[in-house]
Amino acid sequence: MSDSTVLTAQDLIAQYGGIALDKQNDLAAVIGDNNWNADLEQGVISFGEHIVFPIQILGTFSHSSETFLWGWANTASGIPENLLQDALQIKQYGEKTGLPLFTTSQFDAAVNDVHYIGLIASGMLGSSAYYVADYGSGALLVTIKSPLIDEARTETPQRVLTVFPQLISLFEMNHQQALAAYLKAKGFEVTAKDKELSATYNSNTIVATFDELHRLASLNGNLS
Q1: d(CA 69, CA 210)
Q2: Are 175 and 214 in contact (CB under 8 A)?
């Protein structure tokens, strides 16, 4: 995570959103339909008896007040300091780059905003995934780093054709910038010219076109 270039929140979701959303598929494949249980003293979240991941706590979302509270500002909950390192790293980045999203202790939000933060944080920090653990009155946003998820990852070029349209339907961003970043993160060689982008990975090819506002016009792939 470099501080040499000042990026807006839209730049960050474009830079990291694709590969982070892609990783959520790997998490889903590992945890299946199991319910979650968190143990903050141990610093873990579990999905059944045998699937246990170490976590970092980013913050909490309240359904009643529709606000998000960063973990480093949640002094009332007594969150262990060692579980706040990711949140503090994000805050530090916000302080250096002047991004209020990362430095405002509590702000109005919707559930979609929680996923927005989760995707950016997961991508920036190289997490295996993020998880929104809903507990009824609110939800706990955590990042997860685990070989169990990383090793479940398979090279699936086809996933681009479903993940990317989902990403741009959820959040505002520069589509051309976002697709290039996503493809590069998946190991594609990307060539961009004006309103066109082409990418190759082994025998796989993806071609996209964009309008004058860098919005996706077409996305096609020759994938094996």
Answers
A1: 37
A2: yes
94-116 burial string, b = 16+ CB within 10 Å, else e?
A: beebebebbbeeeeebeeebbbb
What six digits make up the tokens of 71?
């973990």
Tens digits of residue pLDDT in 121-173: 999 999 999 999 999 999 999 999 999 999 988 777 889 999 999 999 999 99
**Geometric angle at alpha carbon 83, from 77 and 88, rounded to 5°:** 95
Q: Give tens-digit pLDDT for 166-223.
A: 999 999 999 999 999 999 999 999 999 999 999 999 999 999 999 999 999 999 998 8
Inter-CA distances, 91 with 4, 38, 87, 128, Å: 16, 24, 6, 20
55 beta partners:
144
Write down the H helix ranges in the chain: 9-31, 85-97, 100-103, 111-125, 147-150, 160-170, 175-185
User: Angle, nearest 10°, between helix axes 9-31 and 160-170?
Assistant: 130
